Amino acid sequence: MGKSKSRKFKRPQFSPNSKHGNNAGEEAIEKDEEEGEAFSSAGDLLEKLQSPSPDIREFACASISRLVQQTQVIPSFLQRDVVRCLGPMLLDKSFAVRETAAGALRNLSACGGFEVCDDMVKQDIMTPLVALLKECSAGFHSNSVLSPKSKDEQKNYTEDVANEAINLLWNVCESSSRAVSVFSKEGLLDVVMSCLERHSENVELAVSAAYCLQTVTEDNPELLCRLTPSSLQVLESVMMSSQSTMEHLLLRTLAAGCVWNLKSALPSSSQAETLSAVMRILSNSLEVDAGQAILELKEQESRRREEGKEREVQPCSDRPGEEMGSREGDGMEEGDEETGKPNTSPDNDISDLLPPKNEEVKQATALLSAQQTSLEIIVNMCCSDDPSDDEWEELSSSDESDMCAESSLCECSGVQVLSPLCLSAEIHTALISFLLPEKLSGVRRSSNPLDTDVDLLPGVLITVRAGLTVLTVFPRMHQVQCRALFCLHNMLSVMEGEALGGVVALQALAEHLSQLVFSQPEIPKEDEFLEAVTSAVRSLLQIMASRNIPQCMSPQQLIGLCEAAAQCSHTSVRVNAIAILGITGSTLAKQHHTADKLQMIGSFLLQVATKDPSLVGTGEALDALFDVFADGVEAERAARHIKLLPALRTLQPVFKAKMRKEGREKYSPDQLCVLDNVKVNLRRFISYLETLEKKPNP
């Protein structure tokens, strides 16, 4: 049997800066209304960008920002050169127009995907974007740039614009190597570092900058040549920050990821200390109990909402006109013709176009993002730099070695850098805790009749109060747990058993996985979870089998998992399931009184070999059958009972015909080589079974 390669994560797909204030029903109604107007309004909105009024230009940008969140609307804007129309707005005289234009382009890049981002770069969006970012960076240290307002207001406007621009930069750099090259050549590293330096005053801006920096520092030798000691000092200062909010936790985690990407540029004198700090940050991020933290945040939100209701029913002030007067005197009714925000009268209110300001949701999302980022960093630490590691190894053969990949130390400046896994015990312990069903339990069952119970994962029961925006954090909890499983898979693939804690730790890990997967009456069918959990179980069983370590998962339980995985459309999930049963069956074949269990496993593998739609699945199932029934009295008894020989005789010509028909069209040369090997082994195995057939029954 072969083994799967480590899973390496790219940076996550970016998300649009969309509003979450309305519930799903209201959003669906709004979407239907907007779809009918999209094509007719695109031209009108782009025309309004040329208006002499900054209020109208801002309103047009904000409207475009909202509309492009509907992917079906994007082509109508692209046909009208929306990028070339919005590009100059990044350098508009009005700060408000700059911010909303950058937000519109950010949403366009996020919702349009990689092709739209690449097209934006080809249409030279980088020229005005670079100019805007450099101006914002200079504005951080200036008292007045384009605005006569106070220093504090000026600073906020500059930082707000910079935040949108940095997010746009992150999106295009994620999708375009050309944008990354411009980033390096134009010296945007200094701009991003200046945003990071403001982490104590504006953590949101610093987080955006850290996300962008983590993207552009990955596999970018050109940028390494331009790195200065001062840039590393900025990252180190961020990592050493002591603020306790979840956003700062996320920021430190992202900074640690950037340092890991830049590890080859670290001074040899401080390299070991710096990388140890990276490990501590990742460990600290994973140690936070997300379920408990979100419970506390939900309680805070509930208290805040109750306090808001109490204020609404309180009697008016002793000075009846006070609130009205304060609004009239704040100078915003007419708007600032060049640099201010538009007036806030009902006819011009655009607040519904802007993102929500829910502090609890922000903190919960930041925590889960920090933990997901930590797990992804660890996953990537387990992978070599070989580009092929980004792909799942979908085929294996009996002739391939089962030896675990050797973890090698990376040499840099004469110092041994963190190997693919010199991970701390704290990280290992924190990772294991993510596999407990109660770890990400979120909000528990409630007696409130308006609450709804939602099962995202086995053992993960979440109660969501109708209409609360806190609902948005729960899909991320699911993602984090799946990342933990992928992380575990990679660690098991590259680490020796002793480094993982030895026999006792591996058996405890098997119990955790068993509890996670089998604690519910029905195994979940969600693709990402199935891929993550089958990868982890496969790697764990493989390392335990190679060391003859007993494990707690019964063949019946594993067959239940594999039956769920066999229904998945992803070949890699089905291959994992087959490998799990192959490993289990090979172990049972060496034991006494296991013929009944081998019959169950053999029947399942035969069914997969016969019915799997892919030659990949068929080849893997045959490979597993060869291993399970290769030798032993129990295997011989089971093979006779399930009539393995006649089944394989029937399957052999079908397999050959399918290879001739589909082989060269659907599969790579490497895959065909493995399939040819399976075909040869099938012929030999049938001959072996025919020899056994002539012997008396065992």
Description:
The chain has a two-stranded antiparallel sheet. It is built from 28 helices and 4 strands. The radius of gyration is 29 Å and the shape is elongated. α13 runs parallel beside α17 (359-381), α21 packs parallel to α23 and α24 crosses α26 (633-641). It has helices at residues 24-48, 54-67, 74-78, 82-86, 95-122, 126-139, 151-175, 177-185, 188-196, 203-216, 221-226, 229-239, 246-261, 271-287, 290-313, 322-328, 359-381, 425-433, 474-494, 502-518, 527-546, 555-566, 571-588, 595-611, 615-628, 633-641, 644-666, 669-693, and strands spanning 410-412, 415-417, 451-457, 460-465. Residues 11-39, 143-149, 315-356, 384-422 and 436-471 have low confidence and may be disordered. With 698 residues, the chain is mostly helical.
List keywords for this structure.
single chain; 698 residues; mainly alpha; two-stranded antiparallel ribbon; two-stranded antiparallel sheet; 63% helix; 3% strand; HEAT repeat-containing protein 3-like isoform X1; SYO1-like; ARM-like
Round the mean pLDDT to the nearest integer and report it: 76
SS class:
mainly alpha
Please describe the biggest sheet, giving its number of strands, its sense, and whether it closes into a barrel. Answer: 2 strands, antiparallel
Instruction: Return residue spans where pLDDT drops below 50 for at least 5 consecutive residues.
Output: 11-39, 143-149, 315-356, 384-422, 436-471
Helix content: 55-70%
Shape estimate: elongated
Put simply, the count of helices is 28
Question: Order of strands side by side in the largest beta sheet?
Answer: 1-2
**What is the number of beta strands?**
4
Distance between the termini: 26 Å
